Amino acid sequence: MTLPSTPIFDPPPPPSQAATPSFLNENLQAYITSPSPRPGTNTPTFNNINLEALLDNTNADMSTTSDQEPANASSLRERLLAARERGNKVNANTNATKDPIEKYTKQPAKKIEIHYSHPTAAFDNIDIDQVCSWESRPGGKLLAHPFGHEVRTPELQSEIKRKVFAAIVEITQSNHIGFYAPKPGASPRETPTVFLIYNLTEMQRQILLNREVWSSKTITFRVTTMEPVRPDYLFSISGFTTKSEDEVKDTVRHTWSGQTPQNFLTTLCQTLPEALHCKVNAILQNITNSLRVKMLDTKDPGDASAPTFNIYVQANIIPDDSLWCLLRNHYASQEYALPFQQPGFTSTDLFHCTICHSIDHPRGLCTFPAIEGWNGPAWRIPGPKRDISDKARNKFLRPKRLNWGDSLVD
Ligand SMILES: [Zn+2]
Fold first, then answer.
1. What is the number of structural domains in the chain?
2. 151 and 220 inside one domain
3. Best CA proximity match to 353, nearest among 398, 284, 271, 296
4. 323 and 261: one domain?
5. 249/339 same-domain check
6. Span 166-222, pLDDT tens digits
7. CA torsion angle for 263, 318, 123, 356 (degrees, to 10)?
8. By residue range, what is the domain housing residue 339?
9. How many angstroms separate the alpha carbon of residue 72 from the centre of ligand 1?
10. In this predicted structure, which of 46-50, 175-179, 273-277, 385-389 has the lowest mean pLDDT?
11. Confidence of residue 250 (pLDDT cuts 50, 70, 90)
12. How far is the CA of 361 from the centre of ligand 1 (A)?
């Protein structure tokens, strides 16, 4: 018996051809199972890809024979249908690959302004040396301002810090960010309300700043630069029996153009070198021209209408924190009276919103809870006897009409 001249089994292919499908297969799987780092990158799921056909076509492309037709080439219709399907699914295979940013409330169409009590209010209760040491930390830096009244509770600081840190890591997908929490104070009033994020890339800074307010079911916080901002809000006037913002605006303008403010501004100019007089006069005129009045629909006991009028200017044209304070204190100390009425009551600290920490409205008139998909604090502080289900939260989608007792600083 003679052995056949040809072997029973095919000889193994040359090493280059044998290795290619294996290498491609491994790397494709590694690529496909990698989570998508950013929104908008529709990573296809493993099941969506006809890996076998892809590898077969790869073999065909690498073959030395030119007359071989791709055996599993898809029709145009099939490929378009597959593309449609991919477009409707973002990382749909597992929850683990879902983009983490999706769970945060989307930015509202119109930016909601937050006003603090003075330019450096964010750094209140923090040791000045500690703030200065923050400036020397590496990389890009930002401040995180947690929402809610809990941030002022010293015992809750470490938990809030942990949640904000986890959110920043999740949003930036960075393993290199640094995070500082200032030392809690002895009481809520002495407790700092900001954390420092550092070692950020410029892109990470921009991602965080663009949305500004990040709200998930776990934590809600606002991100700002470290640069102190001079607030547009100056003071509030209450006690007027009108609901006309224009009428109050005319009254404020009239008062500001009166003799007392003019004397004050003249004295202010005289303390400066003569060469600066024209410039300062122009700034003061621009501040006056930028006057804005906004009415808050606050109530007295018995649901009686008692509107509050907030006074704003464009504060970024004021070149100095001291000048801002000087002007704010001066204007807030003036008497503002509608024709044939008693002067209203002025105050610079009438409110403190315990949701967003702005001082130009009470919690019940905060506009953040009205944002579609809001995950953060609601208008009412949930108590042990209150129903905090989604159904109950929806009841508060319209701000409660407030009494003065509700409106005061808490
Ligand atoms: Zn608010």
1. 3
2. yes
3. 296
4. yes
5. yes
6. 999 999 999 999 999 888 778 888 888 999 999 999 999 999 999 999 999 999 999
7. 100
8. 233-343
9. 60
10. 46-50
11. very high
12. 6
Are 353 and 361 in contact, with CB atoms under 8 Å apart?
Answer: yes
Domain containing residue 178: CATH number: 3.30.70
Same domain, 240 and 168: no
What are 11-45's pLDDT values in tens digits?
444 444 433 333 334 433 433 333 333 333 343 33
User: How far is the C-alpha of 97 from the C-alpha of 5, rounded, in Å?
Assistant: 55
When pLDDT is averaged across residues 122-138 and rounded to a whole number, the result is 91
Task: Judge if 174 and 130 occupy the same domain.
Answer: yes
Q: How far is ligand 1, taken at its centre, from the CA of residue 81, in Å?
A: 47
* Last residue of one domain, picked from the residues 224, 256, 285: 224
* 57 and 21 fall within a common domain: yes
> Ligand 1 center to residue 304 CA distance, Å?
23
| Alpha helices per DSSP H over 5-75 | 15-32, 51-62
Q: Report the separation in Å between the CA atom of 192 and the middle of ligand 1, taken as the mean of its atom positions.
A: 18
Domain boundary, last residue among 289, 323, 343: 343
Q: State which residues have CB under 5 angstroms from ligand 1, the bound ion.
A: 353, 355-356, 358, 366
Contact by Cβ (8 Å): 240, 344: yes
CA of 366 relative to ligand 1 center, distance in Å: 4
CA of 354 to the centre of ligand 1 (A): 7
Is the residue at 167 inside a domain?
Answer: yes
Stated as kind and residue range, the H or E segment containing 80 is helix 76-88
- Only one residue has tokens 């700043």, namely 209
The pLDDT confidence band at residue 82, using thresholds 50, 70 and 90, is: low
37 CA → ligand 1 middle, Å: 32
CA 113 to ligand 1 centroid distance, Å:
9
**Distance from Cα 184 to the centre of ligand 1, integer Å:** 23
Shared domain check, 255 and 217: no
The two tokens of residue 314 are 């464009």
pLDDT score, position 99: 73
Q: Are residues 196 and 293 in the same domain?
A: no
Per-residue pLDDT, 146: 97
Rounded to 5 degrees, what angle do the CA atoms 173, 151, 367 make?
85
Q: What is the pLDDT of residue 300?
A: 86
